Amino acid sequence: MNFQIRDAIKHNVTGNSPDELKNIVEDAIKRGEEHLLPGLGVFFETWWQQADKKEQDSFMNELSRAFA
Question: Counting Cβ atoms within 10 Å, is residue 48 exposed (0-12), middle (13-18) or buried (19+)?
Answer without folding.
Answer: exposed
